[in-house]
Amino acid sequence: MPYPSMPRAITVFSLAIGLMTAGVMAADLTAQEPPPLSSGAKFVAQTGQQLYQTSCQGCHMADGKGARGVGLYPALANNRNLAVSEFLIFVIMNGKSGMPGFRDYMSDEQIANVANHVRSSFGNNHGPDVTAGFVKDFSSR
To answer: Which residues of the chain have pLDDT under 50?
Structure first.
């Protein structure tokens, strides 16, 4: 049985080393953890925009226009119901239809922040701002 030529053996060896190095580098890239969405059972994000992006955008979409598919994800854009802050806070806290409630995962301040973001984005211009104190008082009713 003939032995492979030296240049071919060097080429194969070099390719093997290159592939192993690439594999180690790729494994190192995937080992880097993305920033956490939550700390235990609570969301880490604080701003309304961050909370919307991590908690709401998957269903209500980046533009707030909602979606239709396997389910109906209501539009938040130009939504008159959001003018009633109690309605929005209730839905964020307790969920509605297929939407989960976030009462156990967000602080009163986070609920107020995401509510204010939704009420002032996507063509909505509803005020006044919701406060953490208002959310706390509302949740104790």
So the answer is: none
Closest CA to 127 of 135, 136, 117, 137: 117
What is the full DSSP assignment across 42-103?
A: EE---SHHHHIIIIIHHHH-TTS--EESSSEE---TT-GGGGSHHHHHHHHHH-BTTBPP-T
pTM of the predicted model as reported, rounded to 2 decimal places: 0.70
Neighbours of 38 (CB within 10 A): 13
The reply to whether CATH 1.10.760.10 applies to domain 38-139 is yes
**Predicted local distance difference test score (pLDDT) of residue 37:** 52
Two tokens, residue 17:
């080393």
Return the closest-CA partner of residue 77 out of 96, 57, 93.
Answer: 57
Task: Give first-to-last CA distance, the chain, whole Å.
Answer: 87
pLDDT tens per residue, range 100-129: 999 999 999 999 999 999 999 999 999 889
